């Protein structure tokens, strides 16, 4: 008589464990599998896709989005969201571009052209201060992150318009073009790889270290996972929010500066819509929209998937109107899959 495998037998238990382990791997590696599948399909569908030139182009275009997504990851991990990242990028890039292309005149004194490092520092400081303002408003007045950053998004865009006087920079009021030593950041290659990719990877490495090995990183996950428990443990919710949005603002300014370096021009509408693409990248990468779960690596994969999808649709001659629809559908499907995955894991 054949031996029957009961639900409680060792063989059955081992098989169940293997099946659950495989399912967990597939769930966690879902974004990466999707990215590989998309690259494989586009390589077959378009002969221009799988070339070094095109891959370099994708990396150069995606690097600013990836940096925005890293900052957005911090905000979403705390259960918040930063709708102002693109506006901060435009504000910081406009500040940097104006200082580089026009001499500084204060109180009637002409200080001439500022050194490039000083211009870059000014742009980074603008992003940091804008992020600190976001965090301070949220922490002090207990305003929902969504509402606070929706309002500051309009403020920062407006200030960017004032900074550029509604014109492109360099423009009529500029006295020189963007310095070549600055545009190198957005256009040059190092060992055949765009320099902007290295900058994005440095930002990612620092962010991963902060989240995994510092008290701030532990506070970020604690606040997003269970705010009340974090408060009981002595974690300051307000201070954590201020730090998180300061980081997001600083990274947004880096992304904006890279965009200007690549385009050799800035304007107040730069990076418009990138706040939604950064959120999409984070969600696609597996970070929980309600906070407490996720990470930078997933967001990088999500940003790459968004960048590859846009590039592939362009090569296939898909209308920009349909591209918007496709990207929106992808985000909705990913969120549906993510919620189903989490419900499945909670049932185990």
Provide structural commentary:
With 348 residues, the protein is mostly helical. 73% of the residues lie in helices and 3% in strands. It is built from 14 helices and four strands. It has helices at residues 10-28, 30-45, 52-77, 85-101, 116-141, 145-164, 180-187, 195-213, 215-225, 227-232, 237-263, 274-284, 296-315, 320-346, and strands at residues 104-106, 109-112, 189-190, 193-194. The strands form two sheets. It has a two-stranded antiparallel sheet. The protein has a two-stranded antiparallel ribbon with strand order 3-4. A hairpin with a 2-residue loop joins strand 3 (189-190) and strand 4 (193-194). Helix 7 (180-187) packs across helix 11 (237-263). The longest helix is centred in the last third of the chain and has 27 residues, at 237-263. The radius of gyration is 23 Å and the shape is globular. The two termini are 34 Å apart. The relative contact order is 0.18. Mean pLDDT is 90; it is low at 1-6.
Tell me briefly what this model is.
With 348 residues, this protein is mostly helical. The chain contains 14 helices and 4 strands.
| Helix-strand string | HHHHEEHHHEEHHHHHHH
Poorly predicted regions: 1-6
> How many beta-strand runs?
4
Provide the residue-averaged pLDDT.
90
Widest sheet, order of strands: 1-2
Straight-line distance between termini: 34 Å
Overall helicity: over 70%
Structural class: mainly alpha
Largest sheet: 2 strands, antiparallel
Number of helices: 14
What would you report as the Rg, rounded to the nearest angstrom? Answer: 23 Å
User: Approximately how much beta-strand content do the residues carry?
Assistant: under 5%
Shape: globular
């Amino acid at each position: 008589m054949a031996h029957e495998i009961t639900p409680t037998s060792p063989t059955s238990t081992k098989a169940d464990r293997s099946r659950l382990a495989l399912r967990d791997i597939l769930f966690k590696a879902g974004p990466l599998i999707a990215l590989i599948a998309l690259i494989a399909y586009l390589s077959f569908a378009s002969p221009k896709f799988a070339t070094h030139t095109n891959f370099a182009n994708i990396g150069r275009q995606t690097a600013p989005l990836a940096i925005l997504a890293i900052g957005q990851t911090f905000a979403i991990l705390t259960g918040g969201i930063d709708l102002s990242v693109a506006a901060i990028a435009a504000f910081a890039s406009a500040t940097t571009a104006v200082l580089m292309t026009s001499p500084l005149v204060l109180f009637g004194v002409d200080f001439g052209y500022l050194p490039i490092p000083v211009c870059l520092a000014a742009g980074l400081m603008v992003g940091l201060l804008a992020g600190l303002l976001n965090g301070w408003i949220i922490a002090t007045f207990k305003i929902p992150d969504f509402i606070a950053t929706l309002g500051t998004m309009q403020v920062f865009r407006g200030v960017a318009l004032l900074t550029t006087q509604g014109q492109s920079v360099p423009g009529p009021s500029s006295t020189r073009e963007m310095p070549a030593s600055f545009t190198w950041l957005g256009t040059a290659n190092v060992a055949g790889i765009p320099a902007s990719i290295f900058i994005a990877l440095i930002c990612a490495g620092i962010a991963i270290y902060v989240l995994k090995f510092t008290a701030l990183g532990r506070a970020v996950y604690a606040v997003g996972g269970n705010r009340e428990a974090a408060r009981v443990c002595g974690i300051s919710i307000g201070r954590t929010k201020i730090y998180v949005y300061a980081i997001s603002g600083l990274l947004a300014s880096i992304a904006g500066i890279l965009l200007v370096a690549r385009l050799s021009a800035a304007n107040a509408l730069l990076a418009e819509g990138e706040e939604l693409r950064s959120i999409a990248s984070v969600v696609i990468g597996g970070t929980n929209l309600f906070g407490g779960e996720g990470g930078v690596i997933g967001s990088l994969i999500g940003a790459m998937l968004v960048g590859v999808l846009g590039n592939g649709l362009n090569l296939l001659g898909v209308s920009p109107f349909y591209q918007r629809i496709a990207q929106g559908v992808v985000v909705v499907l990913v969120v549906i899959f993510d919620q189903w995955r989490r419900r499945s894991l909670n049932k185990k």
